[in-house]
Design brief:
By secondary structure, the chain is an alpha+beta fold. Helices cover 32% and strands 31% of the residues.
Length: 324
């Protein structure tokens, strides 16, 4: 009897082990790959070289907002569906557009790797496929953007700068890479800076009274705050000022940061009389508990560099903010 019982337990163990193994195998996903803002397009060459490809490029290679020179929203790589196998399926973000008998659009997570966001679009004709892309491009871009911000923040967390003084002086926590140094702390502003090959990237934090930005003249008020409070605080040489470039109209977006109403402004800064300029992204956070606008701005000075990914890193850092 005892031997029968032992044999039964052995069989149960083997069966359980096999079930666990098959389950583990079915849910396993390799790590995704790809540079930040690198988008894989999976579509036949005849579609890519025609109106479907033109539509994809219109929306996903459009100039990124707030940069002084045109840089595409995504760096795209196209491949035909028959090549979309094995390692090629591991891109972190991809758009799969093909002709089929039915019309369908879906956003899927971790289909072939993790983390991964894929957009699948099918339609019976090129005209219907183009219409499907146009109809859903905003939703697709929002999903890709969220995925890339999350991935950038994950990479940033690998090596973080400890910023106790920022929490003490401004009541905010940021996830900032160790590559940034504190250029100024204490007093009216907090300045973080990272040296790059041909310039710097910067995070600039300060406050403004709640009366400084109104709903009726939001854009004008934000520019005025930048050009008065910000310009007065940021140290520059020879009496010049750090202001908003007047020749380029900034982009303004409504958003939330850490659950608080936020205005996001993207545009170009300049130093008067110094022939220095670059892009900025400005988060104006309405912090009613502390009776202030908390301004967190990221700006880049890199005259000989592409700036899309530099600004994207700054925005990923800003989006990590936790405000007390």
């Amino acid at each position: 009897m005892k031997s029968i019982y032992i044999a039964f337990l052995c069989l149960l163990f083997v069966a359980t082990s096999c079930n666990d193994g098959s389950k583990s195998k079915s849910t396993y996903r390799p790590d995704s790959v790809g540079n930040i803002n690198s988008l894989q397009i999976v579509t036949p060459e005849e579609l890519w070289n025609g109106e479907v490809g033109e539509t994809i490029r219109e929306y996903f290679a459009a100039p990124a907002d707030g940069l002084p020179q045109d840089e595409p929203l995504y760096s795209m790589v196209q491949m035909k569906p028959s090549s979309f196998t094995d390692f090629a399926q591991r891109y972190r973000i991809f758009l799969h557009a093909t002709l089929s008998d039915s019309t369908n659009f879906s956003l899927k997570k971790n289909s072939f790797a993790k983390p991964q966001t894929g957009a699948f679009l099918t339609a019976p004709t090129t005209g219907e496929l183009i219409a499907l892309i146009k109809e859903n491009q905003e939703q697709i871009k929002a999903a890709f953007y969220a995925s890339e911000i999350k991935e950038k923040q994950k990479r940033i967390r690998l090596s973080l700068r400890k910023l106790d003084t920022l929490q003490k002086e401004f009541g905010v926590n940021l996830k900032v890479p160790t590559a940034y140094r504190v250029a100024k702390s204490g007093g009216d502003y907090y300045w973080l800076r990272k040296n790059i090959e041909a310039g710097t990237t910067n995070i600039f934090i300060y406050e403004a009274p709640l009366s400084a930005i109104s709903k009726d003249s939001t854009m004008a008020d934000i520019i005025n705050v930048r050009n008065t409070i910000g310009a007065a605080l940021l140290p520059v040489e020879d009496g010049s000022k750090f202001i908003t470039e007047a020749a380029y109209s900034p982009f303004l977006f409504n958003a939330e940061l850490d659950g608080k109403q936020t205005y996001i402004t993207k545009g170009t800064w300049e130093i008067t009389d110094a022939y220095m300029a670059g892009p900025f992204v400005n988060y104006a956070v309405r912090d009613e508990v502390n009776d202030r606008w908390l301004i967190i701005e990221g700006f880049t000075y890199a005259p000989s560099e592409e700036k899309r990914d530099l600004q994207f890193e700054l925005e990923a850092i800003i989006k990590s903010a936790k405000i007390n």
